Structure to design on (1365 residues):
């Protein structure tokens, strides 16, 4: 606890009073649409992955890694980008500055990336591996000229062209100008790559179709050759320009060498593909053909070009244009004519002139080639072509078949961009016979906004044969003979949820629409710990064979002693199950199956078992607490004999009954066995016929020499009398002291300090009862104590015990704080901070912490039990204070102490995103996977299974396929079913989907010209509650409909539901939004008006109450009380107020306030009575304040530009926190803190939380300090906006950013910078250091920079953890 002082008290006061609205915005889920990427080997010291991909995804640069022989994609690191990136190109160079900075021990060959941003910044990026952190860092940066040579016209940048030998880089514009940056030559080995050394300019005199550098011969390494396809200013003809320069010469421009006019019947060039295997040659891809050209032909003016038509996809009606290309490797070829000259194929032109070119010849050097260059071309229709060049062009159209069971053997197209290609390792042909066939594959990676929102890997087969111990490709036999063998397999390696058109936020999950056409899905996202079923206790026979029909009362997890197992198991896991009439111990064998241990079954006496655990240093003994004794079961101590001995430590006295037991190991070599019991009190009369009264007691017995064969327990026990029936008992070791916690049926909790410093030992009561304030109104029940000791003890206790009795207790803590958790039988959970009480008896000298008031939540309906996360094989730590604990009721949760000593509880989520239901008890097991805890679970139906729970929470995604593109999604809160509206006219459908299994229970087809524009649930409260589903449609021919359904269970009572039609109403305009208002009103946005409808149940009709015309159509509606906020298509938001009919008056809807920011608003929501949040279509998140008094206009108090097109805005959170961190505030005084959740069309999710004024001032100073660092400092973002700020959407809206912190920028300070770099940032701004120390509570002239850095990082991590959607 000392590490957070003296900051704790200061936080309580500083964050208490805030008047303004400040927000902290960060991306919670990144999109998956890759806009551009480069494939290479970027990590200098990585020997794990075979390649990496640096991609521009959404608003971030992300590094992915491909590991293993079969590429699997994994995320390595990312960094935010505050502008648009146009192009990423890879180039390889040996940079000695890596070793000069001490980042790597040796000089290594690694790829670097050259990136061009929209604002003309050119940056070289390398990958750094510092300790366990991998990050992206700028090596060199410069700005290219954004105007022409005369400085008059602005340049619109298009792409980068990189020389194959990394000697020059060209920045290509759309119109006329190319800027070429020559990299240094003689100083390159000493200084690394430099961008600002030599620049040369090209004025082409027309629009630039494409440009590329050509490969030169090995004898001309100083020569740079560049070819440009230019459309002249009149647009009449296309020329190929050839430019040349030499590295050792000086000059301001590249030398123009020659130009070649293209044939008049040739279509517009799209791409120039240099061929690395062949010097001075390239492919020219036009709209409908591929042309092989050499620089020699341009010099000689030879217009007899080798041309070949592109194959057209059968489904493509218009021209099928090439989107992108990828240059793959080379392959050896055979069957090439050995004549000096080869006849050129005749090319029949399809131009109106029907010109036939004369036959030509290939040069001799082209015919002597023994390799073929492979090029892959991606078409707009989704077709994929492979072109092999040597010397003719062999083209193969590749059919893609999706892998998996969902759509088996179904051809699929992906109209995306080819990002790169990986090749299989070459097989060893030395040991193969001639003519043996070897199949290899190229792994292509295709992505973009048209690839169903995924990056897909496509494996293209290539057959080679063995000739003279070498692999060569058979040209015609291979290309023409593949046919059906060219069927490919595809799988998605980077799934994405785009396009996100609608979202629905529930208590434990976020539902989003995603996918296009038949691949449409509902994305379900939950935040929590992943739960997976490792295996059932007996996969073949089930748990019935183990239990033999017996009901399990309770269970314990122990380490199986070695002398009790005949054959040594692969694990030491053992679970002891207490059934109604027997004890069943089961152990895990070598194969992971569970079987009954007969030897252990005979060793444990057949009494009523109350508790069992391991004792001793080697945990080779079992301590068993029965209803009448405490025994130790173990070996005799003889190293030769394997006999098992039973030593009785404690026996119940006459008339006593043990009811509970526990155990704790102290630091003074004394172990304590604690039991709860019913003890007869002194008789009230001498009449022997009267039944004695019984009292509940707790006794703690010290046990000495626990490791010896005959431990002793002769010292007098410590005792305490409890007034009520004891229902739970636990003992814990906290900071070297032992504590006993007792729960009763009151319900109440009693806590004792086990004081062993005096003889005899004593149980000292502590003044802590977390349930006292909560249960003050509960009257304790008087139980018939006599029923607890007769033959009907169990049944009598169950019948008479209060349902709110304490079922279990636990202590969870960390270095910051300590909490007691109390579970009740009715499913409620209570907790309280007990740090101050425990510190009185601990060895830590620390100031007392703030005591939070006890709280009570209701996570489930069944009794709550607790289980520790971690290895259970160490007996001394079995019930010690733990950092995390599993809370088990009807669901599973993880309770842990978060930052600043705050208790957090996050759910455990299965693969179907539904918490595990019906569990009665979980027990920790040992030998779990890394990052996972392993547990043995018992369900309410006595099913036994082994589950894994991840140690750290994370966002878990699941797809529910609906077979078409979803546009609206709503959750029916009564049934939990999903209502999904899909597609546009004529295929618009309303579906009823089960989120657990993805089954579609019902489907209603809309009219042929209708598209669903709005979908909501409507709950009408009159004589009874009516539940409706309202659908608003828009017709292509004008007008729309309001259709009302109800969700009903099927008549067969199978657990399925159906949609039943109720009403429909024709509307004069299309409906864009719906919202429920009051008890029986419905507000709809139709056209440029808002209309209020009332349901008349008696006459079964909808009555139109009132209408309010607006200037522009509304896009969304949200209701708070009788206030309605409408997002306007052109004027931001409108605030309206509805007045119901009173005393015969008419209902009316009036416009109260409006905010005219000139922002097309996609969605708007109430945050509180005084604040309204909205999201603009162009990515502006704003919060408007409701004016006080008679003012009409609303002003924006917060504005933040996300930088992507936004679709929906919701308010809520997926993270359940029992205590909210102080830096995060609620939107109103009466509510709990929650997040603003905004989604983009690309599938990204952004969250915003309200922070305190002092936090905003500190983080704002941090932003300015980071942006003020030198351009190559790691604290400086790689790419900024055109104005040099971190504003992604600058210039796209009339609203300037204000009162908002960009979390993606501040997180760089915590996650990517080293300690030295953080110190440099803080030292650059003295004001930043003083602010941090002041907020942290340091006195003037105390504290240092390290303290300020520690506080800043802690503050950012707390806010980040709170804003996880």
């Amino acid at each position: 606890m000392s590490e957070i002082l003296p900051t704790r008290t200061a936080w309580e006061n500083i964050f208490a009073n805030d008047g303004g609205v400040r927000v902290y915005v960060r991306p919670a889920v990144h999109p998956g649409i890759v806009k551009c990427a480069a494939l290479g080997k970027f990590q200098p010291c990585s020997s794990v992955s075979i390649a990496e991909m640096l991609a521009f995804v959404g608003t971030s640069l992300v590094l992915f890694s491909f590991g293993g022989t079969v590429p699997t994609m994994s995320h390595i690191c990312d960094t935010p980008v505050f502008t648009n990136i146009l192009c990423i190109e890879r180039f390889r160079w040996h940079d000695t500055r890596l070793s000069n900075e001490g980042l790597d021990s040796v000089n290594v060959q690694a790829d670097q990336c050259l990136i061009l941003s929209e604002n003309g910044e050119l940056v070289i990026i390398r990958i750094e591996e510092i300790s366990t952190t991998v990050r992206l860092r700028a090596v060199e940066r410069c700005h290219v000229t954004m105007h022409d040579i005369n400085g008059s016209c602005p340049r619109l940048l298009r792409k980068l062209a990189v020389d194959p030998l990394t000697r020059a880089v060209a920045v290509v514009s759309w119109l006329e100008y190319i800027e070429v940056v020559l990299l240094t030559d003689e100083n390159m080995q000493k200084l690394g790559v430099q961008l600002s050394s030599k620049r040369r300019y090209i004025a082409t005199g027309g629009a630039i179709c494409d440009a590329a550098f050509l490969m030169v011969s090995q004898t001309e390494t100083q020569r740079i050759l560049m070819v440009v396809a230019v459309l002249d200013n009149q647009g009449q003809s296309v020329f190929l320009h050839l430019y040349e320069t030499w590295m050792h010469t000086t000059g301001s421009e590249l030398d123009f060498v020659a130009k070649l006019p293209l044939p008049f019947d040739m279509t517009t060039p799209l791409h120039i593909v240099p061929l690395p295997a062949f010097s001075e040659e390239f492919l020219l891809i036009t709209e409908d053909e591929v042309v092989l050209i050499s620089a020699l032909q341009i010099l000689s003016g030879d217009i007899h070009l080798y041309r070949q038509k592109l194959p057209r996809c059968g489904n493509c009606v218009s021209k099928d244009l090439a989107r992108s290309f990828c240059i793959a490797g080379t392959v050896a070829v055979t069957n090439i004519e050995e004549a000096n000259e080869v006849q050129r194929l005749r090319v029949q032109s399809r131009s109106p002139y029907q010109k036939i070119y004369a036959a030509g010849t290939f040069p001799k050097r082209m015919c002597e080639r023994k390799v073929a260059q492979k090029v892959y071309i991606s078409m707009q229709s989704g077709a994929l072509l492979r072109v092999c060049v040597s010397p003719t062009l062999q083209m193969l159209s590749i059919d893609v078949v999706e892998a998996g069971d969902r759509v088996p053997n179904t051809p699929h197209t992906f109209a995306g961009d080819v990002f790169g290609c990986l090749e299989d390792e070459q097989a060893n042909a030395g040991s193969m016979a001639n003519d043996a066939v070897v199949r290899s594959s190229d792994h292509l990676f295709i992505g973009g906004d048209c690839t169903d929102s995924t990056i897909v890997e496509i494996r293209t087969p290539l057959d080679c044969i063995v000739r003279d111990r070498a692999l060569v490709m058979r040209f015609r036999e291979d290309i023409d003979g593949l046919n059906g063998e060219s069927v490919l397999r595809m799988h998605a390696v980077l799934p994405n949820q785009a396009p996100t058109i609608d979202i629905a936020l529930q208590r434990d999950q976020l539902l989003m629409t995603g996918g296009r056409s038949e691949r449409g899905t509902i994305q379900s996202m939950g935040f929590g710990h992943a739960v997976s079923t490792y295996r059932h206790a007996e996969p073949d026979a089930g748990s019935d064979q183990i239990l033999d029909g017996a009901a399990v009362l309770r269970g314990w997890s122990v380490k199986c002693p070695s002398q009790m197992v005949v054959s040594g198991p692969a694990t030491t896991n053992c679970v002891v199950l207490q059934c109604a009439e027997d004890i069943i111990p089961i152990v895990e064998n070598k194969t992971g199956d569970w079987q009954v241990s007969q030897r252990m079954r005979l060793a444990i006496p057949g009494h009523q078992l109350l508790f069992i655990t391991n004792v001793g240093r080697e945990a080779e003994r079992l301590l068993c607490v029965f209803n009448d004794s405490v025994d130790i079961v173990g070996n005799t101590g003889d190293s030769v004999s394997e006999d098992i001995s039973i030593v009785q430590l404690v026996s119940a006295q006459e008339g006593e009954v043990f009811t509970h037991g526990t155990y704790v190991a102290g630091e003074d070599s004394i172990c304590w066995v604690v039991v709860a019991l019913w003890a007869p009190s002194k008789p009230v009369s001498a009449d022997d016929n009267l039944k004695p009264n019984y009292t509940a007691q707790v006794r703690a017995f010290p046990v000495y020499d626990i490791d010896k064969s005959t431990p002793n327990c002769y010292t007098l026990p410590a005792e305490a009398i409890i007034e009520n029936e004891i229902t739970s008992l636990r003992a814990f070791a906290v900071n070297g002291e032992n504590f006993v916690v007792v729960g009763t049926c009151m319900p109440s909790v009693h806590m004792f300090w086990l004081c062993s410093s005096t003889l005899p030992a004593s149980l000292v009561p502590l003044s802590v009862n977390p349930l006292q304030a909560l249960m003050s109104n509960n009257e304790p029940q008087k139980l018939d104590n006599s029923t607890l000791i007769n033959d009907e003890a169990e049944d009598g206790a169950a019948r008479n015990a209060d349902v709110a009795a304490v079922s279990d207790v636990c202590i969870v803590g960390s270095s910051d704080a300590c909490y007691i958790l109390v579970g009740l039988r009715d499913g409620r959970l209570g907790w309280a901070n007990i740090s101050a009480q425990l510190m009185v008896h601990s060895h830590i000298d620390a100031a007392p912490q703030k005591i939070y008031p006890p709280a009570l939540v209701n996570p489930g309906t069944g009794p709550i039990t607790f289980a520790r996360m971690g290895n259970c094989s160490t007996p001394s730590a079995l019930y010690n204070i733990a950092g995390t604990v599993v809370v088990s009721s009807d669901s599973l949760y993880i309770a842990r102490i978060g930052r600043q000593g705050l208790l957090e509880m996050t759910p455990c989520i299965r693969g179907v995103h539904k918490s595990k239901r019906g569990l009665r008890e979980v027990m920790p097991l040992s030998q779990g996977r890394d990052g996972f805890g392993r547990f043995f679970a018992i369900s309410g139906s006595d099913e036994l299974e082994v589950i894994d729970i991840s140690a750290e929470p994370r966002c878990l995604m699941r797809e529910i396929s609906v077979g078409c593109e979803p546009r609206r999604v709503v959750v029916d809160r009564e049934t939990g079913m999903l209502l999904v509206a899909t597609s546009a006219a004529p295929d618009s459908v309303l579906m009823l989907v089960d989120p657990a299994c993805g089954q579609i229970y019902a489907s209603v087809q809309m009219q042929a010209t209708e598209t669903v524009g709005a979908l909501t649930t409507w709950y009408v409260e009159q004589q009874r509650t009516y539940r409706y589903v309202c659908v608003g449609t828009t017709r292509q021919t004008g007008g729309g409909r309001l259709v009302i359904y109800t969700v009903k269970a099927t008549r067969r009572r199978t657990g399925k539901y159906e949609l039943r039609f109720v009403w429909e109403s024709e509307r004069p305009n299309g409906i864009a939004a719906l919202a429920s208002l009051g008890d029986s009103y419905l507000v709809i946005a139709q056209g440029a008006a808002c209309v209020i409808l009332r349901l008349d149940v008696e006459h079964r009709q909808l009555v139109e109450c009132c209408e309010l015309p607006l200037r522009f159509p509304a896009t969304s509606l949200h209701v708070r009380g009788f206030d309605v906020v409408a997002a306007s298509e052109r004027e931001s938001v409108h605030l309206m107020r509805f007045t119901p009919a009173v005393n015969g008056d008419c209902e009316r809807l009036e416009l109260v306030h409006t905010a005219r920011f000139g922002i097309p608003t996609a969605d708007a929501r109430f945050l509180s009575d005084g604040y309204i949040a909205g999201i603009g279509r162009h990515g502006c998140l704003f919060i408007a304040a409701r004016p006080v008094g008679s003012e009409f206009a609303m002003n924006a108090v917060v504005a933040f530009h996300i930088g992507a097109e936004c679709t929906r805005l919701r308010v809520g959170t997926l993270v359940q926190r029992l205590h909210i961190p102080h830096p995060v505030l609620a939107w109103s005084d009466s509510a709990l803190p929650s997040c603003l959740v905004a989604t983009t069309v690309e599938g990204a999710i952004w969250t915003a939380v309200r922070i305190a004024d002092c936090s905003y001032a500190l983080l704002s100073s941090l932003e300015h300090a980071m942006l003020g660092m030198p351009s190559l400092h790691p604290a400086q973002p790689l790419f900024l906006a055109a104005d040099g700020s971190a504003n992604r959407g600058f210039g796209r809206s009339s609203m300037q950013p204000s009162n908002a912190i960009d979390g993606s920028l501040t997180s760089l300070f915590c996650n990517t910078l080293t300690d030295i770099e953080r110190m440099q940032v803080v030292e650059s701004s003295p004001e930043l250091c003083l602010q941090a120390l002041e907020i942290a509570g340091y006195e003037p002239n105390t504290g240092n920079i390290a303290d300020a850095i520690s506080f800043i990082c802690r503050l950012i991590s707390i806010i980040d953890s709170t804003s996880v959607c």
